[in-house]
Design goal:
The complex is a heterotrimer of chains A (626), B (106) and C (173). By secondary structure, chain A is mainly alpha-helical. Chain A has 25 helices and two strands. Chain A has a two-stranded antiparallel sheet with strand order 1-2. In chain A, helix 2 packs antiparallel against helix 3 (84-107) and helix 16 (374-388) runs parallel beside helix 20. Helix content of chain B is 78%, strand content 0%. Chain B is elongated. In chain B, 58% of the residues are buried. Chains in contact: A-B, A-C, B-C. Chain B: It is a multi-pass membrane protein. Chain B: Belongs to the complex I subunit 4L family. Chain B: NDH-1 is composed of 14 different subunits. Subunits NuoA, H, J, K, L, M, N constitute the membrane sector of the complex.
Chain lengths: 626, 106, 173
C-alpha cells in the first residue's frame, strides 16, 4: 500500500508530463491544463496522507525499490525517504504547485503552446519531488539537475525572444557552476564514507570520530557552493533576476517558492554534516547576510515589478541562509514555508497585474489599480505586510525568529539583516504604491481594457493570502509546533528555544519598528511627494549603481566571460589555424613526397631490375659482410 | 669409390656457380629482348642447381638433389607460363622489347 | 693434375663461355643454341658428381623441352637481330658494374664464411653412393612424396595456364 502510494506520489506528475507532451495538442487547452493540475493535486493528496501518517507514528518511512549501484564496498539504493523534513517540503511543493497550475490554466490560456507549458511544469514537479524524497545524495542530485533543466526550459519558454533565451542559458550555466560544487561534495562524501544514503551518512558522521575534519569542511563547502547556485546566493545569484523572463507562474513556482529553496533543503538535510564544521557555517551566515543586504539594496530602485520581487526573493533566501549558518535549521525552514506562501502570492498577484495590463511590467506605467483590481490588491497587500514583517502576518514570526537567532549569535550580522528588512519593507511598499495607488500612468487605450482578473486567477491568490496570514501559526512562540515536528531530523544538536524575555520583546519591537519605518519612508516618498521613478536615462549617482545592480553582471562579464571569449578567439584564430596548417602540412608533405617519389617508378623494367639487383647486393653486404 | 670433391674441391664449384650466376644477372640487365632475359634467368637457376648438387655431395645427402629436381619442375612450369605471357604480349604490342613495356609507371 | 680436374676445367670453360655467348649474341636463335650447349655442359658437371639421374633430367628438361619451347617461341615471333635495339651506353655500363659487383660480393661472402677450411677430411665418403638413382628415388618417394605430387599439380596448372594465355582471344570479346 505504502509502496504503491509513494509511486503514485512520485509518478503522477511524470505521467501528467508524458500525456501532455505526447497528446497535449489533441487534448485541447482546457483538458491539457486540467490534467496537468490534476496530476499535481494527486501528489498533494498523497503527501497529505503520508503527512497525517507520520504525524501519528513519528517514524520516517524508508522504501527501497531496488539496488541501483553496487560496487565492491560502495552501495547505492534506488529508494525514497519520507521523513518529517521531506514531507514538509512535499506538502508545500505540491500544494503551492497545485494552486499555481490552477492559476496557469487561465494565465497561459492565450498561449499556443499551453500543453508544452504544463508538460514542463509537471516535469518540474516530478523532479522537485524526486529531489525531496530521494533517499540518498545521488537521487537528490538527479532531482537537482532535473529542476535545473525545467527551470531552463521554462525561463526560455517564449523562445522566440533572444533575450529570454540568453536568460535561460545564463540560469543554466550559473546553476552548472553550483552543480559542480555539489558533485564534488558528493564525491568527497562518497569516498570518505562509501555510502551516500542519508540515514547511514548521519549515523557515520555523527558517531564518526575518525572523520577527517578538513575533508568534511571541503565537502560542506562544496555542498554550500551547490546551494548558492540553486538558491541564488552571492556569488551565483545573478541568474535569478534574469530568470523573470519566464512566464509569471513559473517565477512564482520555481523561482520563488520551490526550486530556489532546494539549497536550503539540502543543507537542512545534511545538517549533521554542517554542525561539525563551524567555519563553513560562519561562511554561510556571512554570505547569506551579505546577499540579503545587497539584493535588498538593488531591489530599492528596480522598476520592473517582477525584478523587484526577484531581488526580494534573493534577499529573503539570504536571510534563510543566514539562519542556516547559525545552525537554526528549523527557523530557516519556517521562513521557507512562510516565504513560499507570501512570495508565491506576490508573484501571482504581479502576474494578475501584468495579465490585466497585457504584459506591461514597468511600474512607471502602472498606478491606480487599487479600485480596478480589488482582490489582487488586497491579497498582495496582505503578502506585502507579511514580507515586511508586520504582525500578525506570517512573515513577522519567521523573520523575527531569524533576526533573534542572528542577534544571539552575531550582532553585526543582525544589524545587516535588520537593515535588509527595513529595505524590504521600503521597496515592497514602493511596489505597492507605484502599482496600486494614485492615477494610472499608462496609455488611454490600455486603460479601457483594465479589468479584474478572472476567478481562476484570483482563487489561488486568495488561498495563498490566507496562508500568508495564518502561516505564522506553524511556529508561534510558545507553541513551536514546527520545532517539535522537525526535532527528529535535527536531533544532532538540540536547538534551544527562545524564551520570551525582555530582550526578545525588544527585538520584536525593533523589527516591527524597522518595518514601519520602511513603510513610512515609502509612503512619504511615493504618496506624499508623488514621486515617480525617472526614466532610465535620468538615473544617476548611487541610484544608478543600484539600478545597474552594482554592475555585477558587467563585472562577471569582464572578469570571466570576456577572458574566456578572448581565449576562445585566440584558440580559434591563432591556435586552430596553426594546428590546422600543421596537420595539413603533414598531408601536403606526404603528397609532395609521393609526387617526387613516383618519379622513381618510371615503368621501365630495366630500371626496376637494376635497382632490384642493387638492392640484393646491398642486402647481401649487410647480412654477410658487415 | 672416390669422392669427386677430393680431386676438384668445393671452392671451384662455388666460383663456377658464382660466375655463372653473375653472367645471368648481367644478361638480365644487359638485354632488352624478353626471351633472352628469360634465358638469363634459366642460367641463374642452373648455377644454383649446380651448387645444390655440389653441396649435396659435400654433405653426403641426397636431399640437395631432390631440391634440384623440384627446381627443375618449377623452372619448366615458369618457362611454359612465361613464354605464353610473352606470346600474348607480342600479339598485343608487336614487340617483346622490355623497354616498351612501360605501363607500370607511377 | 688429375684427369677429373682437367675434365672439370674443360667443362667449366665450356659452361662459362657458352653462357656468356648466349647472353651476348645478338641473334636470339644463336643465343638459344649456345644455351643448349651450356645446359649440356652443366649436365656434364652432374655426371662428374655421379648423379646420372639429374644429368639425364637436365638434358631432357632444359636442353630438350625448355630450349625447344624457347626456340619455337622465337620462330613464332620471327625475331632476328634486326629487332634488337642498341641499349644506351649507360645501361651497358651499369650492367657490367652490377655484374662485377654481384660476382665480387658473392665470392667475398664465400671467402668470409670459409666453409672449407679444415674440413678436407669430410670429402671422404662412407661407402654409399649418395648420388645414385636408387637412393634419390627412395628419398624422393618417401620423405618428399607430397611435394612431389604437388610438383605434378604445379606442372598441370602451368600447362593449362600456358594454353589459356597463349590462346587467341576471340574477336568481339
Amino acid at each position: 500500500m505504502e509502496n504503491s502510494l509513494v509511486l503514485v506520489l512520485l509518478l503522477s506528475p511524470f505521467i501528467g508530463f508524458l500525456i501532455n507532451v505526447f497528446f497535449g495538442k489533441q487534448l485541447g487547452k482546457t483538458v491539457s491544463g486540467a490534467l496537468g493540475t490534476l496530476a499535481v493535486v494527486v501528489s498533494f493528496l498523497a503527501s497529505i496522507y503520508f503527512f497525517v501518517e507520520i504525524n501519528q507514528t513519528g517514524k520516517p518511512i524508508s522504501i527501497k525499490f531496488f539496488d541501483w549501484i553496487s560496487l565492491h564496498n560502495f552501495k547505492l539504493d534506488m529508494g525514497v525517504l519520507l521523513d518529517q523534513l521531506s514531507l514538509l517540503w512535499l506538502l508545500f511543493v505540491t500544494g503551492i504547485g497545485s494552486l499555481i497550475h490552477l492559476y496557469s490554466i487561465s494565465y497561459m490560456h492565450d498561449d499556443e503552446h499551453l500543453n508544452k507549458f504544463f508538460a514542463y511544469l509537471n516535469l518540474f514537479v516530478f523532479f522537485m519531488i524526486t529531489l525531496v524524497v530521494g533517499s540518498n545524495l545521488v537521487i537528490m542530485f538527479i532531482g537537482w539537475e532535473g529542476v535545473g533543466l525545467c527551470s531552463y526550459l521554462l525561463i526560455g519558454f517564449w523562445y522566440k525572444n533572444q533575450e529570454y533565451n540568453d536568460a535561460a542559458k545564463k540560469a543554466f550555466i550559473m546553476n552548472r557552476i553550483g552543480d559542480l560544487g555539489f558533485l564534488i561534495g558528493i564525491f568527497i562524501l562518497g569516498s570518505l564514507f562509501s555510502t551516500l544514503d542519508f540515514s547511514t551518512l548521519k549515523t557515520l558522521i555523527t558517531s564518526g570520530t575518525n572523520a577527517n575534519v578538513t575533508l568534511l569542511s571541503l565537502a560542506a563547502l562544496s555542498l554550500f557552493i551547490g546551494a548558492t547556485g540553486k538558491s541564488a546566493q552571492i556569488p551565483l545569484y545573478t541568474w535569478l533576476p534574469d530568470a523573470m523572463a519566464g512566464p509569471t507562474p513559473v517565477s512564482a513556482l520555481i523561482h520563488a517558492a520551490t526550486m530556489v529553496t532546494a539549497g536550503i533543503f539540502m543543507i537542512t538535510r545534511m545538517n549533521f554534516l554542517f554542525d561539525l564544521v563551524p567555519n563553513i557555517q560562519f561562511i554561510i551566515a556571512v554570505v547569506g547576510a551579505v546577499t540579503a543586504l545587497v539584493a535588498a539594496s538593488i531591489g530599492l530602485v528596480q522598476n520592473d515589478i517582477k525584478k523587484v520581487l526577484a531581488y526580494s526573493t534573493v534577499s529573503q533566501l539570504g536571510l534563510m541562509f543566514m539562519a542556516l549558518g547559525f545552525g537554526a535549521y528549523n527557523v530557516a525552514v519556517f521562513h521557507v514555508i512562510t516565504h513560499a506562501f507570501f512570495k508565491a502570492c506576490l508573484f501571482l498577484g504581479s502576474g494578475s497585474v501584468i495579465h490585466a495590463l497585457h504584459h506591461e511590467q514597468d511600474m512607471r506605467k502602472m498606478g491606480g489599480l487599487r479600485k480596478i483590481m480589488p482582490i489582487t490588491f488586497i491579497t498582495m497587500m496582505i503578502s506585502t505586510l507579511a514580507i515586511s514583517g508586520i504582525p500578525p502576518f506570517s512573515g513577522f514570526f519567521s523573520k523575527d525568529e531569524i533576526l533573534m537567532t542572528a542577534f544571539h549569535n552575531n550582532t553585526i550580522l543582525w544589524v545587516v539583516a535588520s537593515v535588509a528588512s527595513i529595505m524590504t519593507a521600503f521597496y515592497m511598499f514602493r511596489l505597492m504604491y507605484l502599482t496600486f495607488y494614485k492615477e494610472y500612468r499608462g496609455t488611454e487605450e490600455q486603460k479601457h481594457h483594465l479589468h479584474e482578473s478572472p476567478a481562476l486567477l484570483t482563487f489561488p491568490l486568495i488561498v495563498l493570502a490566507i496562508l500568508a496570514t495564518v502561516g505564522g501559526l506553524l511556529n508561534l512562540p510558545g507553541n513551536n509546533w514546527l520545532n517539535h515536528y522537525l526535532a527528529p531530523i535535527l536531533s544532532a544538536t538540540e536547538h534551544k528555544e527562545h524564551t520570551l524575555g525582555t530582550t526578545e520583546y525588544m527585538l520584536m519591537a525593533i523589527a516591527v519598528a524597522g518595518g514601519l519605518v520602511g513603510i513610512f519612508m515609502a509612503y512619504s516618498k511615493y504618496i506624499k511627494q508623488n514621486f515617480v521613478p525617472k526614466p532610465d536615462a535620468e538615473i544617476n549617482g548611487f541610484a544608478k549603481t543600484l539600478y545597474n545592480k552594482y554592475y555585477v553582471d558587467e563585472f562577471y562579464m569582464s572578469l570571466i566571460v570576456k577572458p574566456i571569449k578572448s581565449l576562445s578567439n585566440f584558440f580559434r584564430e591563432t591556435l586552430e589555424p596553426a594546428l590546422g596548417s600543421l596537420v595539413y602540412g603533414f598531408g601536403t608533405m606526404a603528397n609532395k613526397m609521393s609526387v617526387t617519389g613516383k618519379k622513381i617508378h618510371t615503368g621501365s623494367i630495366g630500371w626496376y631490375l637494376t635497382m632490384f639487383t642493387l638492392g640484393v647486393c646491398l642486402i647481401l653486404c649487410y647480412l654477410f659482410l658487415f | 669409390m672416390n669422392n669427386i670433391l677430393n680431386e676438384i674441391g668445393i671452392e671451384n664449384y662455388i666460383y663456377l656457380a658464382v660466375i655463372l650466376f653473375s653472367i645471368g644477372v648481367f644478361g638480365v640487365l644487359y638485354r632488352r629482348n624478353a626471351i633472352i632475359v628469360f634465358m638469363s634467368i634459366e642460367i641463374m637457376l642452373n648455377a644454383v642447381n649446380l651448387l645444390f648438387v655440389a653441396f649435396s655431395t659435400y654433405h653426403q645427402d641426397a636431399e640437395g638433389q631432390v631440391f634440384v629436381f623440384f627446381s627443375m619442375a618449377v623452372a619448366a612450369a615458369e618457362v611454359a607460363v612465361g613464354l605464353a605471357i610473352l606470346v600474348s604480349v607480342f600479339r598485343n604490342i608487336g614487340s617483346i622489347d622490355i623497354g616498351k613495356l612501360k605501363n607500370l609507371k607511377g | 693434375m688429375s684427369t677429373v680436374l682437367i675434365i672439370f676445367y674443360i667443362l667449366s670453360a665450356i659452361t662459362l663461355s657458352m653462357a656468356f655467348l648466349a647472353v651476348f649474341t645478338r641473334n636470339p636463335i644463336h643465343s638459344a643454341i649456345y644455351l643448349v650447349v651450356c645446359m649440356m655442359s652443366i649436365g656434364g658437371h652432374f655426371l662428374l658428381f655421379n648423379s646420372q639421374f639429374l644429368a639425364i633430367v637436365q638434358i631432357i628438361v632444359y636442353a630438350g623441352a625448355i630450349m625447344v619451347l624457347i626456340l619455337y617461341t622465337i620462330m613464332l615471333m620471327d625475331l632476328n637481330k634486326e629487332h634488337e635495339v642498341h641499349r644506351p651506353r649507360v645501361t651497358r655500363l651499369v650492367a657490367i658494374i652490377l655484374f662485377s659487383l654481384t660476382c665480387i660480393i658473392l665470392i667475398l661472402i664465400f671467402i668470409n664464411s670459409d666453409p672449407v677450411a679444415g674440413t678436407i677430411d669430410r670429402y671422404d665418403n662412407f661407402g654409399e653412393d649418395f648420388q645414385s638413382i636408387k637412393k634419390l628415388g627412395k628419398v624422393l618417394l618417401n620423405e618428399y612424396l607430397v611435394p612431389f605430387e604437388y610438383a605434378s599439380i604445379l606442372l598441370l596448372t602451368a600447362m593449362i595456364g600456358a594454353v589459356l594465355l597463349s590462346k587467341k582471344e576471340k574477336p568481339g570479346k
